[in-house]
Design goal:
globular, about 550 residues, alpha+beta
Length: about 550
């Protein structure tokens, strides 16, 4: 029986690529190792396990055996950032979205573009429609305005919390998550959920625990919040779990998922129908994503139009990523700035100088923040993305036979492309010989070398003290240099993060408003650890703040 199960679940390894012999001999492959790492002392931190395999085997390309992802091919883990960038930007015809992405996101949004193959008609239709939300006018007139309004509501909430808590810290995670969900909902439909305002109006201090952390009574939030929490919980479990299909079956069999899906569909369908009626009768404001998408959809032929089911799934994807990924990135910003008061003071000083003539102290307009040159702010954001590794992996699959670092890879092979992890700091990682790289990779690095020679800061200097949070590594000749450190926080290429522009703009405005209105003092060490929980993204396990209002 052991041999039969092993033969069915564990594929033959690819010649020449390192792997762990013990895992190859077990019918569950590397799942045991992943489960132990995730469950013993590293609960929920699964992303780093992939980079540890490269460190253990001392190779930039290794193979693991993971039956839930593939029983026909080993899973390849690539930790060489230069090769990763080459694959996702220059060799796009060779790879596509991995099937496991559709397995995961198919749980809650099977028609969303995040899980679709790039060459599919469904993906092309979705992208053609939703590109409207990345236009400069939408970013300026809709996204910037909405996140600025929500940021001011958050200032009001935290001013009240600071007063009631008498300076003791509180957990910021739910406030930030609700703020990002509120902003994303307004971007989508042009109407508010009032999530931050509800929390502010019903604020009531409950208790202070032995760590001096205060808690507030949970506000009664709209039903959609609990629905989204349920969907995110199911999605995170499926992504983290060693048997995604098993968890999918469990959530459906128990009715947990079906009940949430039914109400989610009803709520989103109502929003889509309302927006469609406004567009049909010429009453659309054009200031929300759904109106713009439906207007564009109406101009398409029937064969290229997108169904309401597909629209609903794409909206859900954007709401989930706004609620989880963007909020997670901003929580890391808060943690790093709170733990580095010198950086925080320097950032506030530069913001104060730049916006000293704004009409209201501490509250420059969305337009002012969006258009201002703020190199140190850009450096803080970049350094946070580098250190936090919010999305440190991307999943691809070879579409045709190709070569990676000198190895022949068959079509259909799953790839885990690492954009961050412990392999960066490991002295045991070997140098990759230039002749093993692709022609496009060698050509690209030649251009970068010539560019670096003209810079006053060398790569070695910029990467000194790799583990330190140091935004100054991004400043070259008093200007922000986005190429100062090689990283891919949003992946890259046509399948890179679709909402990158929105996320960066929202973080920019939220940071400015909060840093100019509050001082965030450093907290005791027990309230400031950097453990994470992995799922849709890598989020901090804790994020406490004790904001002190700068204006009364």
């Amino acid at each position: 029986m052991w041999l039969i199960v092993h033969a069915l679940l564990i594929p033959d390894p690819i010649h020449g690529i390192p792997y762990k012999t013990l895992s190859r001999l077990q019918p569950w492959g590397d799942l045991g190792s992943l489960g132990i790492y995730s469950g013993l002392g590293f609960g929920g931190e699964i992303f780093d396990w992939f980079s540890i395999q490269c460190v253990d085997l001392r190779a930039p390309l290794v193979q693991v055996f993971m039956p839930p992802i593939s029983t026909t091919h080993p899973v390849l883990i690539l930790s060489d950032l230069r090769e990763v960038e080459d694959i996702v930007t220059k060799r796009m015809s060779e790879t596509d979205r991995a099937d496991i992405m559709h397995t995961w996101f198919g749980l809650v949004a099977p028609r969303a573009s995040i899980g679709l193959k790039s060459k599919s008609d469904a993906y092309r239709k979705q992208r053609s429609l939703w590109n409207v939300i990345l236009s400069p006018s939408f970013l300026r007139e809709v996204v910037a305005k909405n996140i600025h309004d929500v940021a001011l509501e958050l200032v009001n909430l935290w001013t009240k919390k600071a007063e009631q808590s008498q300076g003791f810290p509180f957990d910021a995670r739910d406030d930030i998550q609700m703020a990002m969900l509120e902003a994303t909902w307004r971007n989508m439909f042009g109407t508010p959920l009032h999530l931050v305002s509800i929390k502010s109006e019903s604020l009531h201090l409950l208790q202070r625990d032995s760590s001096n952390v205060v808690t507030f009574k949970a506000a009664s939030m709209p039903e959609f919040c609990s629905i989204l929490d349920t969907l995110l919980l199911c999605l995170d479990w499926v992504i983290q779990g060693v048997t995604p299909r098993g968890y999918t079956w469990l959530f459906r069999a128990t009715g947990i998922l079906s009940r949430a899906e039914k109400r989610k569909d009803e709520i989103l369908d109502n929003q889509i129908c309302t927006a469609r009626a406004k567009v049909r009768h010429g009453k659309s404001s054009g200031k929300d994503a759904m109106s713009l998408v439906l207007e564009k959809d109406a101009r398409m032929s029937e064969s290229t139009a997108v169904t309401d089911d597909a629209l609903r799934d794409e909206v859900l994807e954007l709401l989930l990523t706004g609620r989880s990924t963007t909020s997670g990135s901003f929580l890391w910003v808060l943690k790093y700035l709170t733990d580095h008061p010198t950086v925080q003071r320097k950032l506030r000083h530069q913001l104060s100088l730049r916006f000293e003539k704004c009409d209201t102290p501490g509250s420059p307009s969305a337009e002012q923040i969006m258009t201002a040159s703020l190199p140190y702010l850009d450096a803080v954001i970049a350094e946070t993305l580098r250190c936090s590794a919010t999305v440190p992996v991307c999943f691809r699959e070879t579409s045709l036979p190709c070569t990676i670092l000198g190895h022949n890879i068959p079509a259909g092979t799953p790839l885990v492309l690492l954009t961050a992890g412990s392999f960066y700091q490991s002295p045991t990682m070997p140098h990759v010989a230039e002749e093993l790289r692709s022609r496009t990779s060698r050509k690209a690095v030649a251009h970068k070398i010539n560019h670096t020679r003209n810079s006053n800061s060398t790569s070695k200097q910029r990467m000194t003290c790799f583990n330190d949070f140091d935004p100054s590594r991004w400043i070259v000749d008093s200007m922000f240099n986005p190429d100062a450190v090689h990283m891919l926080p949003f992946s890259a290429g046509s399948r890179g993060c679709f909402g990158k522009k929105i996320a960066m703009l929202e973080m920019r405005i939220l940071i400015v408003v909060l840093i100019m209105n509050f001082d965030f003092p450093k907290l005791a060490e027990p309230l400031s650890n950097y453990k994470s929980v992995d799922g849709l993204s890598r989020k901090p396990r804790q994020c406490h703040v004790s904001p002190r209002p700068l204006f009364r």
